[in-house]
Amino acid sequence: MNKFIEAIGIALSAIWSNKLRSLLTVLGNIVAVTSIIAVVSLIQGLNGAVSNAIVSEIGADAFQIQRMPITRTQEEAERAQANPRVTLDDAAAVKRYGSLIRFVAAESDASGSIVHRDESLDNVQIQGFTRDYIYFPAFTAARGRLISATEFDRNRPVAVLGYDTADKLFKGADPIDKVVRIAGMHFRVVGVSERKGTVFGRSQDEFAIIPLGVFRKLFGSRPSLSILVRPTDPGLVRPAMDEATTALRIQRRLRPKDKDNFGVFAADTFMKLYETATKNIFAVLVGVVALSLVVGGIVIMNIMLMVVTERTREIGLRKALGARRRDIVWQILTESVTLSTFGGIVGTGFGFLLALTIAKLTPLPAAVQAWSVMIGVGITAVVGLFFGLYPAMRAARLDPIEALRRE
Are the CB atoms for 372 and 43 separated by under 8 Å? Predict the structure, then answer.
């Protein structure tokens, strides 16, 4: 341990005595690690934002049934266009035949205008739900309350506004029990939903929730529904999805050989789809940036070879005084690793700063995580070890007599 600390001390002393050269040597590492940390932080931020958006839309312990399944080819997409619309009868069948299913809510949405006095919002997402929607944890009220089961059953003109919708219409005033016009019809505001945030700069809080019966009076019954399903236990999502699939096949009288003419999705389904679509892009992006580390490593190896040449007499003297080959190797490797790791530490700090700056100035989110610090510093330590090995071995092979003869 003492030898290790002594070697680091010698390495730091050598770096400090040649400050400009050391800085230029690790500049490649600084740039490379800055880029890698910034890219990784932005990727993690994107993954987190997409995951939160999916969970807030569906719920971690629920799944969704839609008219269109996930399609991977143009032929599959064209075939899916012929799928029948999802109806309230489908929702009733899922609840009737599903022993593992506790709540089923049907939903439809459209774009419409919302007006309160002189304030007006266009192209707001209007969502119509059936009564069971209040039992899904993805829907919560920050102020007021959710629509009650009785109000759903009686198709009362009441609404829950998204956080941004309420804020823009009421300018900070209390919206509860106030009246707004949605698509020309008067609604009493009973609640304001909790803030969901933004995804890629797009607000997830500009919407209004109303009973499905009232929604159909405004927008008609032609739009296809989607069905939200919550099982009796969060650990039974997959078995409940199988039950829902069987229930819909029975309801639609599909034969055993017929393919499903609907799609069933859980939150992890969409996450896997997103990861499949982006993982190759992210891998290539990180790989291209990481190539600069190789360039930085080559620069370090070049400098360390020059250091060995400059300190030939010193190395010869140490060997003449009894230093073993492994002591010489250890000295040069320690200096190489210390130099490279210094660049990694500086690059990590710059990478975080760059990622947070990008997140502040653009819609792209960033997530700074502790493991990425270990990656940034660890990679540069490995680079210093690998590219310092050849100069260290070369220094260890020096003949002390020949080394002492050199001027």
Answer: no
pLDDT, position 42: 81
141 vs 202: CA distance, rounded Å: 21
Residues in Cβ contact with 205 at an 8 Å cutoff, skipping those fewer than 6 apart:
162, 163, 164, 165, 193, 195, 196, 197
> By CB neighbour count within 10 A (0-12 exposed, 13-18 middle, 19+ buried), where does 264 fall?
buried
Reference 160, options 207, 114, 198; nearest CA is 207
pLDDT on residue 126? 93
Q: For residues 391 and 311, is the Cβ–Cβ distance under 8 A?
A: no
pLDDT tens per residue across span 47-67: 777 766 666 666 667 888 888
Distance, in Å, from the CA atom of 297 to the CA atom of 26, rounded to the nearest integer, reads 9
Angle between helices 19-58 and 267-310 (to 10 degrees): 170
Concatenated DSSP letters for 128-178?
Answer: EE-GGGGG-TT--EEEE-PPPHHHHHTT--EEEE-HHHHHHHHTTS--TT-
Determine if the pTM surpasses 0.85. no
End-to-end Cα distance, the chain: 34
Question: Hey, where are the domains in the chain?
Answer: 2-53+273-405, 84-261
On the question of pLDDT at 395 being above 80, the answer is: no
Closest CA to 51 of 42, 62, 60: 60
d(CA 270, CA 55): 10
User: Strand 198-199 to strand 202-203: parallel, antiparallel, or no bridges (unpaired)?
Assistant: antiparallel
Residues 264 and 318: their CA atoms lie apart, in Å, by 73
Residue range 82-110: average pLDDT? 90
